[in-house]
Amino acid sequence: MAAASGISVDHYTRLEQGRETHPSDPVLDALARALQLNVDASEHLYRLRAATSSPRSARGDEFILGQRMAALVEAVRPNPAYALEPSRHRVEGACR
């Protein structure tokens, strides 16, 4: 898909993995063309970029996610468990 859209493989990989959250208009246009998106799907692609949270609110979201992940791990006690957050932080639980 990177070659079809004319963007570098590295940049495409960062987009795909969520490490690049604010692609430029030309990049989104190229991806929409390569994916042969219709007008509605292209607009949705732009809305996805606009919906990315600011770094400040992302930290709050990470905190809430961490709490939820910890609750999930706690819920399966006494069995050992772990969960991975999107940032690959590990939330663990141990046997009692």
Class from helix and strand fractions: mainly alpha
Q: Kindly report the oligomeric state of this protein.
A: single chain
Helix content: 55-70%
Give the topology string: H per helix, E per strand: HHHHHEE
How much of the polypeptide forms β-strand, as a percent range? 5-15%
* Overall mean pLDDT: 78
Biggest sheet: strands, sense, closure?
Answer: 2 strands, antiparallel
Backbone CA Rg: 18 Å
Termini gap = 48 Å
Query: What global shape is seen?
Result: elongated
Number of strands: 2
State the helix count: 5
Largest sheet strand order: 1-2
Q: Poorly predicted ranges (pLDDT <50, ≥5 residues)? A: none
Textual characterization of the structure:
This protein is mainly alpha-helical. Helices cover 58% and strands 8% of the residues. The protein is built from five helices and two strands. It has helices at residues 2-5, 9-17, 25-34, 39-50, 55-75, and strands at 81-84, 90-93. The chain has a two-stranded antiparallel ribbon with strand order 1-2. Strand 1 (81-84) and strand 2 (90-93) form a beta hairpin. It is elongated. The termini are far apart.
